[in-house]
């Protein structure tokens, strides 16, 4: 799940939690709880995306690295 999808889930969750009346679908469906679940999924998705993006390092070509930093003699 990318950052864009995570922000989408966070936004939909906030709309379900704060902008819609909790009893709009009746007593059996708690739309505010569904909104909280979407918001948690969005926050977790953002955290995972940021973590995985920060772990991506620069891939070093061994040939270029060897030419720029010759081994000690």
From TrEMBL:
UniProt keyword annotation of Transmembrane present: yes
Q: Which residues cross the membrane?
A: 29-52
Sorted alphabetically, which keywords does the UniProt record give? Membrane, Transmembrane, Transmembrane helix
* Name of the protein in its database record: Membrane protein
Q: What is the originating organism of this protein?
A: Sphaerisporangium rufum
């Amino acid at each position: 799940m990318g950052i864009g999808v995570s922000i989408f889930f966070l936004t939909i969750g906030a709309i379900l939690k704060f902008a819609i009346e909790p009893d709009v679908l009746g007593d059996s469906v708690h739309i505010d709880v569904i909104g909280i679940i979407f918001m948690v999924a969005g926050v977790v998705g953002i955290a995972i995306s940021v973590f995985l993006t920060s772990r991506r390092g620069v891939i070093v070509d061994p040939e270029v690295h060897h030419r720029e930093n010759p081994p000690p003699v």
